Every structure is written in C-alpha cells, then in structure tokens.
Write a sequence for this structure.
C-alpha cells in the first residue's frame, strides 16, 4: 500500500515526496521532515491536479506525484527521489550505481528489466506492491476479484464488504467508477453483490457497481443530482444519466423495502 504522509511524518518516504514535489516546480527544502511548507506544497500540487487539497499524501497524490519517468541520462529532483528509495547517493544523476540498482530491483521484483522507472516500478519501490494495469483492449475485458480490488485501491476507492464479489467485472466498469471518484471528488466504496440475476446489463454480467449511501453520504448523491441528467424513473426508483471519460453511466437510486438504500450504477 502507498504510505500515508502528513504533517509530522519523517523519513525516506517524506524525503522522496519532497524531491518529487520539487521536480514539479514546488519550492521547498527536501529534509525528510513533513512541515508546514511541505504541507502547503502538497495542497498546491493537489489543487493543480484536481485532488482533494487536504495536505495529506495518500494513494491518489502518490499516483500523480510518481507519474514521471526516470530513464538513463535523466537528472534532477526526480532522480534524487528515486535514489533515496534505492539507497544510493542522491546526487540527481542516473549514473552506473543508480542504473545497476534499478535493474537489480526490477529483476528481484519480476518487473521488466529495462532500467526505466515508470508507474509500475515507482509503485513497487514506494508502495511495496505492483499494480497491474487495467486491460484497455475491447469493451468486454473481464477482471478477477483480486485485480479489480487492486485497481480500486490504487485509485483510493474503499474495498466493498459483506456479500460482495468483483469476479468477472468488466474493466470498463472499474474505469467508470474510478472516473466517477475523480469527477465527484467524493469518498467512494465500490462493490457488487453475489447472487444477482443474469440480465443483459446486470451485476452478474459485470456492468454494475453499487455505491452505498451509508459511506458516500451526501457527496455522491449531491453530485449525481446536480451534475447529471435526470431521466425517467426505473419503477419507483429515480434515475439519472451521464458520461464519464466516454463511459456511459446510468444512476438509479434504489430504496429496497428491506433497507440498504444505495446507488445502483450501470457503466456501458
């Protein structure tokens, strides 16, 4: 998991984050201490990248911060950030020792040994795990439960609990709920229940995710009702429509008789 850094944090991860912020043009001292100037730089970076400007470096901020490539010949603060994590002298130059350290790390962690530090290598170095990319070829690519959860977690989306399974969910559906989080800037819990009927655009076919209002509260509800197009109800349940990064979304506010009010969202 990505480490969480906030005011008072100290150590190598804080130093790495400071170098990455400096690489993005933020003026601060890279001293390994998360003080007021670092918190302000984080908030500025978050605003610029349309993230919640809370001054805390979590999964979403780390993902944006590490969206930089370090290749042989690179120089500067981003190289220092990498060198801190690899435990070599942070001189800001990809020299022989840094190249060797990168290649050894990639080999040890079963990554492509190309000497280039991109998203996969950054995630493994800082978070300690790799994050497989969502398949993008085809509209009906399916994911297993583990990969779907990894993608949700990498986007800062809480894992579902209870009678849930994401096995067989469409990659496009996962992309849709991640796009929803980014657009709404709300806390999201994504999941689906097991045992659904096998309709054309059903949970069972991997098209739907349920978002519980218990967790999302007013944020998701307000965002849907104020930004999406209202359509005809589905039975007695109100319905809205919209598009998220080219993915069509249908939002139905379900109020089951036995409780458990939630948003039932179909991504196509």
């Amino acid at each position: 998991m990505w480490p969480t850094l906030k005011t008072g944090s100290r150590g190598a991860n804080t130093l790495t984050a400071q170098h990455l912020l400096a690489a993005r043009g933020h003026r601060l001292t890279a001293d390994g201490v998360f003080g007021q100037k670092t918190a302000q730089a984080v908030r500025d970076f978050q605003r610029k990248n349309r993230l919640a400007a809370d001054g805390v470096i979590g999964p979403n901020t780390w993902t944006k911060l590490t969206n930089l490539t370090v290749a042989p010949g690179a120089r500067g603060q981003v190289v220092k950030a990498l060198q801190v994590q690899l435990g070599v002298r942070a001189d800001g130059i990809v020299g022989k020792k840094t190249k060797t350290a990168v290649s050894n790390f990639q080999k040890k962690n079963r990554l492509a040994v190309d000497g280039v530090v991109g998203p996969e290598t950054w995630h493994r170095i800082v978070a300690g795990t790799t994050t497989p990319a969502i398949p993008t070829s085809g509209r009906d690519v399916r994911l297993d439960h583990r990969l779907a959860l990894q993608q949700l977690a990498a986007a800062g989306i809480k894992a579902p609990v209870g009678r849930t399974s994401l096995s067989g969910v469409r990659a496009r559906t996962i992309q849709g709920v991640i796009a929803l989080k980014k657009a709404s800037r709300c806390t999201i819990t994504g999941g689906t229940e097991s045992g659904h009927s096998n309709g054309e655009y059903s949970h069972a076919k991997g098209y739907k995710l349920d978002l519980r209002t218990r967790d999302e509260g007013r944020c998701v509800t307000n965002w849907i009702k104020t930004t999406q197009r209202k359509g005809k109800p589905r039975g007695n349940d109100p319905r809205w429509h919209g598009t998220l990064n080219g993915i069509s979304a249908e939002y139905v506010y379900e109020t089951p008789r036995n409780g458990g009010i939630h948003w039932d969202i179909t991504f196509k």
Notes: The radius of gyration is 21 Å.
